[in-house]
Amino acid sequence: MSIESPVIGYTLGDQAGIGPEVITAALTQAPRGATYRLIGKHIDCIPGHPTQETAEFALEHLEMAAAALKSGRIDAVVTAPICKEALHRIGFNYPGQTEFFADRMGVKDFAMCLTGKHLTVVLCTTHKAISQVPQLLSTKEIVRVATLLTRFLQRTGKPTPRLALAGLNPHNGENGAFGDEESRIIAPALPILQELLPTAHFDGPCVPDCVYRDAAQGQYDGIVAPYHDQALIPLKLIDFDNAVNATIGLPRLRVSPDHGTAFGIAGKGIANPASTIRAFELALRSVQ
Question: Are 141 and 165 in contact, with CB atoms under 8 Å apart?
């Protein structure tokens, strides 16, 4: 990490989308105390009209950002939205930026974290069919992602975080009436986590239809969610305009606004930069 002034890198994403405008707007409100460095370059393109060239530059700039992050030339990076469909057509073989940055930095122990002003969640399973979740969920995986979330919260300003382990089934399974994953898989993670991370506090299994309300009201700093939509529906309902996506587990933080390229409104000057502003704030907090 830079001693005097941390260096926060940023990319422009697919520049036919809203990336350039939300980055430009966010930089006018970015927190003081850091040097902000563009990774890559501006290109000529028509807003709202993605091409193979805009995808190729987006991928090239991601490669540059990953290399700079790995080498320590930057202390954290904010990446603007990409179009995964377009990148897949040119050989991008990753579900998203989370997996790409983890691979490029040689990190196997990582997770997707979404964090807004009211909710912070980490996912035990990500882009999987709901029918697969009970088979994929394990005590070991819950401990792994909860540990990553705890360290992320400590790294970004919460030295004694409070985490909730959300249940999988309605009403936590009603004592096994419709599911036993709570007692068989989730509950055994609690004593393991408390021993591993004594400065943090863990509750669970917590009834999933109540715990997000509790966290939004300040009872918890983070929630460990069994599956994608259980976490992202409340997050996007409450924090849609200010949530960010963080790849946790990396030695240096990669964070991005939690929205897409929005080609339909690109260049119209109406894109909301709030999520990107918060991404820069979080990037700086991670290195202070």
Answer: no
Q: What is the pTM of this model?
A: 0.91
User: Helix/strand/coil (H, E, C) string of 158-180?
Assistant: CCCCEEEEECCCHHHHCCECCEC
Chain length of the chain: 288
Find out whether 47 and 266 touch, Cβ atoms under 8 Å: yes
Q: What is the DSSP string of 205-228?
A: EEPHHHHHHHHHTTS-SEEEESSH
| SS3 state at 27 | helix
Question: Residues 160-202: pLDDT tens digits?
Answer: 999 999 999 999 988 888 899 999 999 999 999 999 999 999 9
For residue 34, what are the contacts with CB-CB under 8 A and spacing of at least 6? 5, 6, 7, 8, 283, 284, 287
Alpha helix positions (H), the chain:
19-27, 52-71, 84-89, 97-104, 133-136, 139-155, 181, 189-196, 208-216, 228-239, 274-285
